[in-house]
Amino acid sequence: MTLPDTMRAMVTMGHGGLEQMVLHADWPRPEPVAGEVLVRVRACGLNNTDVNTRSGWYSKTVTDATTGGAFEEVGEDDPTWGGAPITFPRIQGADVCGEIVGVGAGVDPARIGARIITDNWLRDPDDPTDKNKTGYFGSERDGGFAEYTTMPSVNAITIRSELSDAELATFSCSYSTAEGMLTRANVTAKDTVLVPGASGGVGGALVQLAKRRGARVIALASEAKHSDVTSLGADRVLARAPDDLRAALGEDRITVVADVVGGPYWPTLIDILERGGRYTCSGAIAGPMVDLDLRTFYLRDLTFTGSTVIDPEVTNNLVRYIEAGDVKPALAATYPLDQLREAQAAFIAKKHTGNIVVTP
């Protein structure tokens, strides 16, 4: 197979606004080194990590909600998910669905032609469970907003599915994030789970995956998106931020809050947790700074878990769910690569219900 020496790529040039993403028509095509594969990208999902890394929102100097725009001040030492700088220019995009078209030394050539999705976490092969030794695809190394990308062979997971490339590109980040949260919170069929922001990519995945575990699911979403969230399996869908959440819940008693929203409404979510309840979090799109009454925390015997770096088996389980048809994609829209800025603008504005995918 003859491959081009260059490729189209949307390259992030530094922290800042949407203008930092620049389309290049002749970016050098990467070559796989030992242990790696070369993937022709068929589709790549868009996620909060892409937006927040580009804008520098992860820096503790930023206290505002996610806006997707440039911030007045971004710390130089902690502007990414891992609290460390990254190298620019950088090709972002973690959620690749594609085809292996080349392999580096030590990788079985039989992998060429395999259809794959990504395990986004770049782990130390000698110590894969050490969370301090992890990176993220599209952050600590170039990702999938391009025609080709390379990755460790272990991160390219073969998948057998009749779903389209764009549909498969919705799973790697949103669904693994959701499954990681539910795993940390040990959600079972005995639980009633409250999902704020249920119309988003992670929120919709939380609804499906919590239902898969047998839990009862109460979702919060804007009224215009209630039918979409109901179709994902939610038992009830309430307003995005009811004035009296306890009254709106009625007889439902919440044992788990699975949250990626945060912001001013956060204390309300904590107040309605049952004694011994669990709060699990993997985002704060409405704002990272919240008020906590520690008396609520300890007198009600609550457990808080943060969830970012997930264990390898979480992604492996997710692939099994996809292949078995246990979860369905929540594909909201596709955009061509040269419209990645417009895609991010729509994502930030929450224009769509579900996941946005970019196709080269």
Fold and architecture overview:
The protein has helices at 48-55, 165-168, 174-184, 201-212, 226-231, 245-249, 266-271, 294-299, 312-324, 340-348; strands spanning 6-12, 21-28, 36-46, 95-103, 115-118, 121-122, 135-136, 148-152, 156-158, 192-195, 216-220, 236-238, 254-259, 273-281, 303-306, 331-336, 355-359. By secondary structure, it is α/β, with parallel strands linked by helices. The protein folds into 2 domains: 6-170 and 329-359, Quinone Oxidoreductase, Chain A, domain 1; 177-306, NAD(P)-binding Rossmann-like Domain (Rossmann fold, 3-Layer(aba) Sandwich). Helix 3 crosses helix 4. The model has no long low-confidence stretch (mean pLDDT 96).
For the structure shown, list the relevant keywords:
360 residues, alpha/beta, Quinone Oxidoreductase, Chain A, domain 1, Rossmann fold, seven-stranded mixed beta sheet, six-stranded parallel beta sheet, 26% strand, globular, ADH-like_C, NADP, oxidoreductase
